Amino acid sequence: MRTRFILIETSHAGNVGGAARALKVMGFDDLVLVSPRWANVLRREETIQRASGATDVLAGARIVDTLDEALDGISHLCATAMTPRDFGPPTRSPREHFQQLLADGPAAAEGGIPARPAGVAFLFGSERFGMRNEDVYRCHVCLSIPTNPGFGSLNLAAAVQLIAYDWRLALGGFGGAAAQSVRPVADAAAVSGMLAHLEQALVAIGFLDPAAPKKLMPRLNQMFNRAALQEEEIHILRGVAKAMLETAARSRR
Q1: Is 123 helix (H, G, I), strand (E, B) or coil?
Q2: What are all long-range contacts of 148-156, with beta carbons under 8 Å and residues at least 24 apart?
Q3: Collapsing DSSP states into helix, strand and coil, what is residue 238?
Q4: What phi, psi does 66 have (nearest 5°)?
Q5: What is the spatial distance between Cα 47 and Cα 17, in angstroms, rounded to a whole number?
């Protein structure tokens, strides 16, 4: 499914760079600018700096004069606007709409949305005025990002990032970061040896009375079992116990 992000009449070059970075982070690269303020916006220093490495997205971006030119190959249009329009498309949160958009079979038909459109475009208006009514009216849905009711104005690049993130999640995401190699948990013998060493140290510093040990060592045993200690951690605790014994010996001398 083709995914395109369309910025209409953008006035700040930095937002174009920020949007390019947002797209690259989420694995998208189809960016179209409709009549931006700066004809050379893709090459401006502020744009390149804010892109922060997403220069390939900027290199592949297109600048067109009209919205119609930006919509080739797109069959589903998503407006982004804070305020619903009278007589406009239904207003939904991004996640709600994406779930419905990607649903197969009757769920899609009941919502009046063709299942699996060939291309989806997300439209963003200018920083000062947002989207024009006539542009919103031609869209299938108006996406409204849930924000603080008292202050819902989002920076353009931030709005692009949020929509790109939710859309990537709906498409399945990338998965988490590669897990670090898991070191094996220390065996019972290692834990038992460490506990015996620690017990000696606790007695040496006067924390544990061997004549009345109560339940201290069994409780420490259970605590360390819950911690699922690794070999390196066993070595650290034994080092602590050794230092405690040496300190106690020096004190006695």
Answers
A1: strand
A2: 152/82, 153/82, 155/15, 155/18, 156/7, 156/10, 156/12, 156/15, 156/18, 156/19, 156/124, 156/127
A3: helix
A4: -130, 160
A5: 4
The model's pLDDT over 156-165, given as tens digits with 9 standing for 90+, comes to 999 999 999 9
Report how far apart, in Å, the C-alpha atoms of 92 and of each of 17, 22, 81, 140 are: 27, 22, 10, 11
Q: Tokens standing for 171?
A: 């498409």
What is the CA 72 to chain-centroid distance, rounded?
Answer: 30
Three-state SS for 88-111 is CCCEECHHHHHHHHCCCCHHHHHC
Query: How many residues belong to the chain?
Result: 253
Kind plus residue range of the DSSP H or E element containing 34: strand 31-34
Average pLDDT, the chain: 87
Q: Is residue 48 within 8 Å of residue 17, measured between CB atoms? A: yes
Q: How far apart are CA 112 and CA 108, in angstroms?
A: 6
Q: What are phi and psi of 32, to 5 degrees?
A: -130, 135
How far apart (Å, rounded) are the C-alpha atoms in residues 76 and 143? Answer: 13
